[in-house]
Amino acid sequence: DPVISKGLSCLRSVIADVRNTYTTALLAYTFSLARDTLTRQQLFKKLEKVAISDGSLLHWSQSASADDSESLAVEISSYVLLAVLTADSVTTADLGYADRIVSWLVKQQNAYGGFSSTQDTVVALQALSLYATKVFSSDSSSTVTVQSEGDTHHFDVNQDNKLLYQEKQLQNVPAKYSIEVKGSTCVSVQMAQFYNIPTPTEAKTLSIDAKIEGDCKTLGQNFILKFTVKYDGLQERTNMAIVDIKLLSGFTAETSLVSLSDSSQLGSSSRIYASLVERVDSKNDHLIVYLKEIPRNIPINYQIQMKRVLPVKNLKPAVVKVYDYYQTSDQSEAEYSFHCE
């Protein structure tokens, strides 16, 4: 196809200047699909230089930090895995390399088989599925034994149940468990522990603050909810950010009336930051604000018009939350309240 050839040629011309790890991984998968072996090797050399190796585990991240196991790292590593396995002939060495990436990826899965976000889950499951086709054996079986001093479970994986999800509850917790696998087929084993932890109050690189203003004496009175988001991380700006606003009981909000509440701090740039709002959705008693990005070290102020439609006694505070869409652990919460005497 001439259009595809022209597009690949355009991408090929800028590869030497690419410094972004995500872009490099995506290009590696692109040229693997295109069966361009030479360009594919160039991109893998770039990826080798920024790979994060930890024993038998291998992954990539945007910040090249060994502690970064968030959504973007999952997505980048999944694209590398797809690139490794997308070749005319996958060698034993390729599978050994892929094993290390898979070992890291499965450690990032949550108890339900997904990852941090929809996007990284889709790419990771695609990569893991491709890996499964490469290591598939049509006539093998394995037995997995999970054991502690007072608790033993056996899982048989064979041709009749190879696609069946098997789960058993551990009775002896806390305890030290061992896992032993005997057989010749690949199996995936995951252990999940559920517990409650208090919501952290300290802000990370993202922060949010909110307050509501208005006269409560008249039912139907309009109110203004003002909130400020700020990013003080290492990057010039965040990825797409989500502001989740829980409405106070008895209040409604106008989703179309999101605007800068104080553009004086931003000077001539106020129009630029006003356009950061991608859209605003209303879901149940929450207002979800999608921000294209949050620039570093510039407090961005917005206001939303609200209306009190039902009087509620002993009104409890509501929570506002901001988080990075691709790095969901980078988040902050704050409460806002309204007192009417």
From TrEMBL:
It comes from the Eukaryota. SMART domains: A2M_recep. Gene3D superfamilies: 1.50.10.20, 2.60.120.1540, Alpha-macroglobulin, receptor-binding domain (2.60.40.690). Coiled coil: none annotated. Residues 238-336 form the Alpha-macroglobulin receptor-binding domain. GO terms for cellular component: extracellular space. This is Alpha-macroglobulin receptor-binding domain-containing protein.
